Amino acid sequence: MNPTAHIAFRVAAAFVVLGLGGALISALVGLVLANVGPAAGASVSLCAKDGVVPAGGKDYLAQNNVWNAATPQCITVGDQSLRIESAGHDVSPDGAPAATPSLLKGCHWQECTDVGGLPVQVSAMPRVTSNWVSSQVDAGVYNAAYVVWFHSGPVAEGTPDGAEMVIWLRSHGGVRPGGVLLAREVAISDARWNVWLARDQGRVRITYERIGEATAVKDLDISAFTGDSVGRGVVSPDWYLIAVEAGFNLWRGGAGNAIENFSVSVDDQKPRRALGTAAPAPCFAALNVEETWTGGFRAVVEVTNVGDSPVQGWILDWTFPDGQHVEKASAAQVTQSGSAVRAVGSALEPGRSTSFDVVGSGVSPGIVSITCTPA
User: Fold this and answer.
1) pTM of the model
2) Mean pLDDT, rounded, for 324-343
């Protein structure tokens, strides 16, 4: 743990609450935080499973972060760079990854960097952008992704209690995001993204899966993704963005993957209010067309309870766009009036999902927006 950096981040958090500007915060933190870590251009080897070191100075940290396996892993850390030298992992891609080696700016649990404009409250979030250049191998099972952490206060004492926002840039080996597919091809920050929602370890996790893989991004608009998550009721405007991480989730292998450069910029001179008003819903649903034929289709509707308590039942409402009609459905009571469809289902525990088939007539409906209401 880096106690000096932790103190500095707490000082910055107090200034955020008092409403002081980023330039003044940086100047004051400079009096608290000594220069830590190797000098620019130097490198250090890190093999401890929970090891954390400065990544070329006080503004960024590198973490080995082997958290779901006992297999060995070593990384080399440079100035805002990281390379995975060895990784002996072999866990099922159907579950959690073995490790998440990454670079970060902000506060991951109690490991903190210099302030760098963070934390910021979502309700008055400035433009937050990031650059990331990576090199990725064509072996193993892994993904390359950002993880953005939100917490109810400006500093998390332990696990953040807000949402986990994942920006998924590329994967290898067939791994896919978990949870319910909420929307397809959403335009954010000069690309299109499929949006997934899951509940994991007591938190809601929203994942933006890029359509068309990328190994590098420039000026990726973290604040725009946050605005979309607020509009979906996943992130509260009262929460704080406390950390931005970039790295690799490793299931099998992973050696050779590298972050050539990573940076995060906070433009606190141009505050911008996040779009939408959070109205967190305890359940979400998505319709995915699985089969089509002339004059008909079969779709699967998946419902997930993302709340903290059971729902005694659920009601789904959606509208078909082009005159489609439900001919039959399984495991749910489905009725239709004109283009409006309603499905009713039974109790669902927190974090659990259920699904049912819908066979319909007409052309494939494509993306359908579904409203899920507890019964």
Assistant:
1) 0.77
2) 94
